[in-house]
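Because discrete structure vocabularies remain unfamiliar, we first show an illustrative case, written as a sequence plus integers encoding its fold.
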Amino acid sequence: MSLENVLAWLTGADAGAFLVVTWLASWGLEEFAFWQKLSSKARQLIILLLAAALGAGAQWLADNPATVAALQPYVQPAIYAAIAWLGSQVAHRLNTARGKPDGRG
């Protein structure tokens, strides 16, 4: 997957930017007291604004192919690392035997 593919997904009809922001909010912010103290409407607005900013930034990058080409060698390892990490998280969730002394589900 190239940076161009990621940018197309972030700005596409399948709402990639929104999915990324909501996942990061639920994974990274739910444990923080300041986030929990916000009203539901405030959290929704923050997520919507961050998703719009991410999508707009991705679109700006997509409209600047020279910048994308310059960033590609540096971003590509991060893309592969993110894909590998997400795959390991899915495998971890699906492994019902994890944490059991006998290794059986």
Summary: The helical segments are 3-11, 16-29, 33-37, 40-62, 65-94. The radius of gyration is 17 Å.
